[in-house]
Amino acid sequence: MSELPTTREALERIWALAEAEEVELSRRAARQSDNLGYTHEVVCDMLYELQETDLESLDWSHWEPNVAVGTFRAVFTRSDIDDAVTDELFVEIAIRPDSLYVLACKLYGSPE
Q1: pTM for the whole thing?
Q2: Which of 10, 31, 34, 98 is most buried, judging by how many CB atoms fall within 10 Å of its CB?
Q3: How far is the CA of 33 from the CAs of 4, 90, 105, in angstroms?
Q4: Could you tell me if residue 101 is inside a domain?
Q5: Domain containing 71 — which CATH number?
Q6: By residue range, what is the domain housing residue 62?
Q7: Which DSSP state fits 32?
Q8: What phi and psi, each to the nearest 5 degrees, are found at residue 90?
Q9: 3 state SS of 47
Q10: What's the structural domain count of the chain?
């Protein structure tokens, strides 16, 4: 197993892949983001805005070898609607070499 990326390396990878819209959502994360009213583009915007202070943990995936998983608690304000809505989110992302795989995207503290 290779060395776990630093927080900065993980974020730079997330930003690059989010900007390129190389983002896939698990069925659970797709349902959660739909419940929030987030389109694929909004999810990409939210991922692009993640910061070091949002990171709660960075560990290896239990399912994919050499894939880091980042867990974030982020505050995100949507820019795609007229009435600014700010959400506090729990976001979990598998940082694959060629894409991001969002495992969870829900309101922080929400059971679903």
Answers
A1: 0.92
A2: 10
A3: 28, 11, 6
A4: yes
A5: 3.30.2310.40
A6: 7-107
A7: H
A8: -105, 120
A9: helix
A10: 1
